[in-house]
Structures are given as C-alpha cells and as structure tokens.
Amino acid sequence: xxxxxxxxxxxxxxxxxxxxxxxxxxxxxxxxxxxxxxxxxxxxxxxxxxxxxxxxxxxxxxxxxxxxxxxxxxxxxxxxxxxxxxxxxxxxxxxxxxxxxxxxxxxxxxxxxxxxxxxxxxxxxxxxxxxxxxxxxxxxxxxxxxxxxxxxx
Length: 153
Fold this sequence. Notes:
Elements lengths: L1 E3 L10 H15 L7 E3 L4 H4 L6 E4 L2 E13 L4 E13 L2 H6 L5 E12 L3 H10 L7 E5 L2 E5 L7
C-alpha cells in the first residue's frame, strides 16, 4: 500500500507534476502485483483559508495573512497561493489566547495548493496506468461512497 497523507498531493502545483507522481507510484507498486495507493484529496473549498482567521492545533497557531487564486498554465487547473504566520506557544491554552509572553517562535510559510476534482484524479490515474477501485469523497453534500463517486466540480 502507498499512502499519501493530509492532502500532500495538492502541493504538486501542476497537472504534469501530479501525473508524474502517479506514474512513480504505479512504478513502485508494479513489482508487488495488485496493491493499493491511498490519496487524500480535499474539496476545493477546504483548500481555501480565511485571511486573518487563526486555526489552533495544540500549542500551534496558524493564521492566513494572504491568499490568491491563480490559473495554472495551459492545463486550466486552479492553484491557491497562501501565506501563513505559524506560531508555537508554550501551551495549547497560550496558543488559544495568543499570549505573546508565551510565544516560543514564529515564522511565515508560503504554500501553493492545486485543486483536484474526482474526475480529474481518475483521468490522471488512468494516464499513469492506475485503476481507481474505489473513491469516496466528502464534498459539500457530505460523505458519499461510490465506484466511482459522482462527478463534481
């Protein structure tokens, strides 16, 4: 099995990069016979951040300071360019309170995340010689299971 955790596939910012990744996965899985690759892709609305709205996870606080939607090359894909302020506090309570006296460090980090709809993922997988055996997605309408899941976006 080949897992791709936490939406990491979205960090490949062009269809060509995503296709190359899937070809590499197919090549790595081929010697072992039938195998599975698990890709965690997000609904495009989950790729977008709200500028100025912090997210706290344990002692970490992440705040989007800038976000821009851009068209990516000839493939027509949409890429979200985001800049975040990442902060590490001494405790989760300090992170929730944004207690400057408990701030351990902070840095800015930029991301580019490419949207991938279910139909596009199936097309990219087929081009790499992979078959989508099952796809489930939590899109705006909630959890659905299907083979393959319904066309969306």
